[in-house]
Amino acid sequence: MLTAVVIILVIIAAVLIYAATRPNDFVVSRSASIAAPSEAIFPLINDFRRWPEWSPYEKLDPDMKRTLSGAESGKGAAYAWEGNGKAGVGRMEITSSVPSSLVALKLDFEKPFRASNRVDFTLMPSGETTTVTWAMRGGRPFVAKLMGLFMNFDTLIGKDFETGLDNLKRATER
Q: Which one, 20, 66, 91, 135, has least CB within 10 Å?
């Protein structure tokens, strides 16, 4: 009996030590080639009032409370939300807006967990298409490192980014 307890404690300690060695930061990034000019795509990202047209997160809770503040679009525009367990509670603000090429956001979650991340949408025109990259980066506290041993955050979040990019594609390609 004592041997089994010791073995279990050693396994738990090994998992905790391994989790502690994981990187302190994360990046999730997805890109899509869209057959539309960057000038047609940019306004959908740069204006939070347009996000329901493409963002997969807008569909998580039909009763989600949304509050827009600050600038109408671009730098200083802010969007706060309060929703069910899937949508959570948070706020994002556009911190940089370079017409037709970049929208950078500060993204703060309150629920279901606290986190502060940076999100960048970059638009790179090339001939008849535009490559749109949606990237999120931030810190990984110990709990996130531990959870990351059992869940693949890149896959989970990445699927949402892929859906959003597909929605942007449908909204702008003609």
A: 20
Confidence at residue 2, expressed as pLDDT on a 0 to 100 scale: 79
Contact 49, 68 (CB under 8 A): yes
DSSP states along 86-108:
TT-EEEEEEEEEETTTEEEEEEE
3-class SS of residue 58: helix
Closest CA to 29 of 140, 164, 157, 172: 157
Contact criterion met (CB below 8 Å) for 46 and 154: no
CB 86 within 8 A of CB 111: no
Q: Which residues of the chain have pLDDT under 50?
A: none
Which of 118, 116, 56, 63 lies closest to 85 in space, CA to CA?
A: 63
Number of separate helices (H) and strands (E) present in the chain: 4, 7
CA 42 to chain centroid:
17
pLDDT digits (tens, 9 = 90+) for 158-174: 999 999 999 999 999 87
